[in-house]
Amino acid sequence: MSDLESKTRYDPGEVEPRIVRRWLDSGLFHPEPEGTPDENYSIAIPPPNVTGVLHMGHALNNSIQDCLVRYHRMQGQRTKWIFGTDHAGIATQTQVERALEQEGLTREEIGREAFVERVWEWREQYGDAIVEQLKRLGASCDFEDERFTLDEGYEQAVLEVFVALYRKGLIYRDRYMVNWDPGSGSAISDLEVEDRDVTDTLYYLDYPLASGSGAITVATVRPETMLADTAIAVHPDDERYRRLIGETAILPIVGRKLKIIADEYVRPEFGTGALKITPGHDPNDFEIGRRHGLAQISVIGEDGRMTDEAGERFAGLTVADARRAVVQELRDQGLVARAEEYPHTVPFSHRSGERIEPLVSLQWFMRMDELAKPAIEAVNDGRVKFAPERFAKVYLDWMENIRPWCVSRQLWWGHRLPVWYRGDETYVGTEPPRGEGWVQDPDVLDTWFSSALWPFATLGWPKDTPALRAFYPTDALVTGRDIIFLWVARMIMMGLEFREHVPFADVHITSIIQAPDGRRMSKSLGTGIDPLNLIEGGPRPPVFPQGGDFPAYGADAVRWGLLAMSSGQDVRFSEEKVAQGQQLTNKLWNAARLILLGIGESADADPGESADGDPGESADGEQSGALRAAIDPSAVEDRWIVSRLARAKAEVRGRIERYDFSHAALALYDFIYGELCDWYLELVKPRLREHDCDAQLTLLHVLVETIALAHPIIPFVTEEIYAHVPGVEGLLAAGIESQPDAIDEDAEAALARTIAAVQAIRGWRDESEVKAAAIIPARLTATGYDETAAQIERLARLAFSPNGGNVKSAGADVESARADSIAGSAGAEPAMASVVVPGGTIEILPNDELDPEAAEGKRAARRAKLEAEISRAQAKLANQGFVNKAPAPVVQAERDKLARLQEELEAL
Question: Given a cut of 50, is residue 526 above it in pLDDT?
Fold first, then answer.
């Protein structure tokens, strides 16, 4: 036990990397593909971007997943945490393009093949950063079976899906309005667009009527797009314009004739009620144009500059320059009626941050309505459940109004479309077409297309692999609400389409951890927190006013803190919670040392050393085996802690199974910190010092069961403690054979009374300013303490006397103080004070530590305070408005409070 004796302080910086190596070397996280999905347990990690580094969202999400995975592994299930990374098309390509810029190059200059090679090189150099960070957090992923969304097998799965959907008629090519991202030079989906509030100038422009009878005025924030106008629309019921429907206006600058049409989309209250229609540059105008057969003119190109169709004066200008030039031209012609500020929401690219340019473009689309129907049914009939439940409605609302998905992207990094053209011919297939003259489409697929296949493509589909048979469908998905549509919904659709089974049964939506001031976490805002700085110690971001560095809290503390913070709502980051997690790990370590060293002194058991320097099998196998045998405790405190352990196990496990990780973490803390360490260890210390066998058996049983319970949440410290337990082999992470639970209502009631009595006496001592070391004579006049009176004496530092009596000078030892009390008593003396405890009172007898007059003064003050509180409570309960209208539990609580106050007053 000497090795443990020397480790007086738990050092996560030394322990955690060593434990990670043990876990990885054991092969525990790489299960054999045996059994069925019903017998096994699996989760597919939301694949981090290959460009990524660990942030607080990752840390929370993966702490939750690891808690689930470890929990089920310890239940004896074959458990696989499917692991891999995403190629992250736009994000990764942007990183490499920036690197090229520093060399004075562009991707166009080096060509596609060379550029893709550069991206692969970049991935090899930087792509493992987040993998190593996840290991540092303690994630028990199957790192040996790491997948990548562009590896050879995965690419085959993507091709198979694309071709199958194309042949089914669900993937097609069309000219359609898309969200063009000038920053990435690609179309992006609706779900990659974010609305921002901006204030633009709203221009009122006069369009002369062809009849010469005046002008019709339109309002627009984009005057540069007027060069592509093909009509003017008004509402059919708008009396102001009914007479103009069917007439023609003249487009200023261009001179094109525009028909005035009626369409119910127009809002009469916006602007003048007359709407310029630009089918080539507005999604709503595009739909109006289709209804009315209008031409689509594009005056803005994919490079964000005006095209030749804008006219010689404007071609080549940026959009902003063109806007200024057009407005000036209109002012010169006297056609700007007025201008005003106009706050509104505008779409921006979530990828590049630039303003979206709606363009009509020839793209590949995927029709979603047919795929959505079974995915809607899967949630409605409960095959897929969301936690919290409210997110099911968010999912269903979107699915029931789903739109076609633009799946092509104008990038070079990603899954290239399996499409070839030769003249007017189009070929789609998993292999290139035969013959000459075929040219492959240069576009790649949206990254989310390949990600949608993640739960089954990672397991070897389209091949019928043992892993696929053993681990699909998976059991749960842990993710954020921001990708319910981008990813969750699409995985459900693809799983049902290609595997005829939902990909997971439960979807847990995590909280979003905000900065301490409530803002979003962002490195650029100074509000982002690097989890590794919390784990290993590092600079606090500017959002923390105290500045300086975080202490090295360790991974367990960060995991516990994040789980304790998590809830169904977004929460602000709390360093105090992480510090509380560190306190828990330290408390558990110190408790384990106390127990194991105490047992070691008795059993003379030394765990010895294994070949790699880690604690191994006990030198005294027979003694150690006895210590792990089933227990049958007789002492009331032993029966109490075993019973409380059973309740803690049920509570923590139940919370984990219901995805209530916050209450699971807090329940674990309350049991370890409160009941085990603060009470049971204090109750049992004398017996441990006396080498009481029953106490040792109970302590070891409770320790092993407690670290097994805590392991999914704080795996490092529990694994380190387990390595020092005599008579055990292997890893705690592999699971242990749990001993039967035993609830003992009588023991719980007895100790609840005892704890309440000790707390009451301690409160009285503080209030009376009694010296901490002083042992006070007292008389126990309460029932229910037959088994625990001695415990109350020791913990509350009292000396119970059967007759009373004045103790002139209480010694430091309870027994000697009791003897002095009895010897010096000539008969029962009146109490100086009386403390209410469950079942009666504890009377404080005369002694040198208390001034009788001061004690009576305090008693009188307490009596007056109680009388005032009783009067208030009685008045409240006499108020029929309160009794009849307040919730029943509130009224009952007030009655209980009154009874307690009256009982204490009677005792005084």
Answer: yes
Mean pLDDT for the stretch of residues 742-761: 95
Question: For 72-108, b where at least 16 C-beta lie within 10 A, e where not — what string?
Answer: bbbeebbbbbbbbbbbbbbbbbbbbbeebeeeeeebe
Pairwise CA distance, residues 229 & 226, whole Å: 5
Helix (H, G, I), strand (E, B) or coil at 742: coil
- Look up residue 879 and give its two tokens: 């108020």
CA distance 897 to 757: 18
Quote the CA–CA distance of 67 and 558 in Å, as a whole number: 13
Structure-block tokens of residue 679 = 């009470």
In angstroms, the CA 521 to CA 455 distance is 29
Long-range interactions of 536-539: CB distance < 8 A, separation 24+: 536/13
Q: How many Å separate Cα 856 from the centre of its chain? A: 56
3-class secondary-structure state, position 32? coil
Which residue carries 């009794």 as its tokens? 883
Nearest residue to 278 (alpha-carbon basis) of 241, 325, 223: 223
**CB hemisphere CA count around 289 (13 angstroms):** 23
Q: Provide the whole-model pTM.
A: 0.84
Q: Tell which residue, 198, 178, 174, 182, has the closest CA to residue 190.
A: 178
pLDDT above 80: residue 604: no
pLDDT at position 855 is 65
Task: Say how far apart CA 318 and CA 502 lie, in whole Å.
Answer: 48
| Residue corresponding to tokens 């899954």 | 415
| Rounded (to 5) percent helix, strand, coil in the chain | 45, 15, 35
Segments in 454-544 forming alpha helices (H): 454-457, 466-471, 489-499, 531-536
Establish whether the linkage from the previous residue to 462 is cis, with ω within 30° of 0: yes
Query: How far from 634 is each of 631, 639, 676, 747, CA to CA, in Å?
Result: 10, 7, 18, 10
Cβ neighbours for 891, distance < 8 A, ≥ 6 positions apart: 877, 882, 883
CB 586 within 8 A of CB 677: no
Distance CA 643, CA 648 (A): 9
Element (H, E) at 556: helix 555-565
Query: Are 797 and 817 in contact, with CB atoms under 8 Å apart?
Result: no
If you count them, how many residues does the chain have? Answer: 908
pLDDT bin (cut points 50, 70, 90) of residue 908 is low
Helices (H), 400-488: 447-451, 454-457, 466-471
- Give, as one character, the DSSP assignment of residue 673: I
- Cβ distance 672 to 584 under 8 Å? yes
From CA 487, how far away is CA 481, in angstroms rounded? 10
**pLDDT over 90 at 851, yes or no:** no
Tell me, what DSSP letter sits at residue 677? I
State how far the alpha carbon of 304 is from the alpha carbons of 200, 284, 513, in Å. Answer: 19, 20, 36
Alpha-carbon gap, residue 652 to 744, rounded angstroms: 19
| pLDDT attached to residue 625 | 43
Q: Are 401 and 208 contacting, i.e. CB atoms less than 8 angstroms apart? A: no
Position 803 confidence tier, pLDDT thresholds 50, 70, 90: low
Q: Is 4 in contact with 596 (CB distance < 8 Å)?
A: yes
The answer for 827, left when phi > 0, alpha when psi is -120 to 50, beta otherwise, is left
Q: Is the pLDDT of residue 657 over 80?
A: yes
3-state SS class at 287: helix
Contact 437, 420 (CB under 8 A): no
609, two tokens: 């050393």
Residue 237, token pair as written in the block: 């019921």
Among the residues of 658-806, which ranges form H helices?
A: 661-669, 681-689, 693-710, 715-722, 745-768, 789-796
The DSSP code for 482 is G
Residues 244, 246, 249, CA angle at the centre, nearest 5°? 70
Q: Is 453 helix (H, G, I), strand (E, B) or coil?
A: coil
Per the DSSP assignment, residues forming a β-bridge with 261 are 233
Query: CA-to-CA distance for 23 and 19, rounded, in angstroms?
Result: 6
